[in-house]
Amino acid sequence: MPAVSFQGVAKTYRGARGTLRALDGVSFDIEEGEFFGLLGPNGAGKTTLISILAGLAQATEGRVTVMGHDVRADYTSARRALGIVPQELVFDPFFSVRESLRIQSGYFGVKHNDAWIDELLAGLGLADKANANMRQLSGGMKRRVLVAQALVHKPPVIVLDEPTAGVDVELRQTLWHFIAQLNRQGHAVLLTTHYLEEAEALCWRIAMLKAGKVVALDRTAKLLSAAQGQMLRFKTDDALPPTLAPLARVTGRMAQIPTKDAAGVETVLAQLRQAGVRVEDLEIGRADLEDVFLSIMQGAAGPGTAQEVAA
Ligand SMILES: Nc1ncnc2c1ncn2[C@@H]1O[C@H](COP(=O)(O)OP(=O)(O)OP(=O)(O)O)[C@@H](O)[C@H]1O
Questions:
Q1: Which helix (H) or strand (E) holds 197?
Q2: What CATH superfamily is the domain 4-220?
Q3: Taking all residues of the chain, what is their mean pLDDT, rounded to a whole number?
Q4: SS3 of 216, please?
Q5: Cα separation of 238 and 88, whole Å?
Q6: DSSP alpha helices (H): ranges in 71-188?
Q7: ipTM score here?
Q8: Ligand 1, atom 29: closest residue by C-alpha
Q9: According to the 3-state scheme, what is the secondary structure of 271-308?
């Protein structure tokens, strides 16, 4: 039985200016104990899919199950199998950290779980804040409490919706260390993130959404192996020649150009030289998940096919 199953999920929003198909026939399973990444640009439909999973929104078509429980027909059992860490910082200012975790446990009908609450507090670096009032905590500490709240009932499936947006390095490390430990103990994890290096480091499999459709779904290693090329990175103040400009990813002075192999690297360098482009801090590196992601999102040939410079 998969931990989570999305079967032909579609969602249409109807508004004053017509209808928007935010999800269009999304189907995939997350296996028990799997660490799964859901990636996609802004507006791809990730939050909509997670809202449907959480029972906060209804699919227009299709079916979603959590540990075999239909999220609509069997909402309570499905919700109980999920630990959802929300994006926003929502908290009750009147309680201490420990109280808020006890109250949250009560919502799930869980009693006598103080040992687990202590484990959560220790694992998330909150042990010395157990009796602090929620409103006294910094934003990062509140976020840790939200993670703990999502896990009070030891759910088999943990959903993290952009958990590290605006979070400092220390909290990221604490969070990933703890989540990885839970994953080793058998909890499935569904992660959405815009930090592709996190997805590359943590996820076994990755689905990429674009405009409501799954455009890639594979083992992370397999997706990465599709990006066999070399990536040329350099800084320049000059405009790139028309032969290279459409292939380049430019961020300020930094340009990155994918190439197929060493001969491709030489071709690019020759074209830069010919065009009189002055290059600084040149590096040649392996293509990474970001390159795979961008080439898929730009609609390059097939999933995982990096754009190449003609040699
Ligand atoms: N309640 C709503 N009513 C109408 N349209 C909506 C609603 N919620 C989302 N949308 C639209 O559905 C599409 C998918 O949005 P969604 O928030 O799921 O994307 P996302 O992948 O989570 O994006 P982000 O990375 O920015 O969080 C977008 O075009 C969005 O504008």
A1: helix 196-202
A2: P-loop containing nucleotide triphosphate hydrolases (3.40.50.300)
A3: 88
A4: strand
A5: 41
A6: 75-80, 97-107, 114-123, 139-151, 169-184
A7: 0.95
A8: 43
A9: HHHHCCCCCEEEEEEECCHHHHHHHHHCCCCCCCCCCC
Q: Give the integer Cα–Cα distance in Å for 304 and 228.
A: 10
Q: What is the pLDDT of residue 103?
A: 92
Helices and strands (H and E) in the chain: how many = 10, 14
Q: Are 308 and 258 in contact (CB under 8 A)?
A: yes
Query: Would you say the CB of residue 58 lies under 6 angstroms from ligand 1?
Result: no
The answer to whether the CB of 20 is under 6 A from ligand 1 is: yes
- Residue closest by Cα to atom 2 of ligand 1: 13
pLDDT band, very low/low/confident/very high, at 296 (cuts 50, 70, 90): confident
Enumerate the β-bridge partners of residue 209: 214
Any idea which residue has 């609609």 for tokens? Answer: 299
The Cβ-side half-sphere exposure at 79, using a 13 Å CA radius, reads: 14
Beta-bridge partner residues of 207: 38, 217
Evaluate if residue 276 carries a pLDDT over 90.
yes
- In this predicted structure, what is the pLDDT of residue 302? 38
**pLDDT confidence of residue 172:** 87
pTM greater than the 0.80 cutoff = yes
Question: Which pLDDT band, with edges at 50, 70 and 90, does 4 fall under?
Answer: very high
CB 191 within 8 A of CB 174: no
Ligand 1 atom at minimum distance from 41 CA: 25
Tally of CB atoms within 10 A around 63: 15
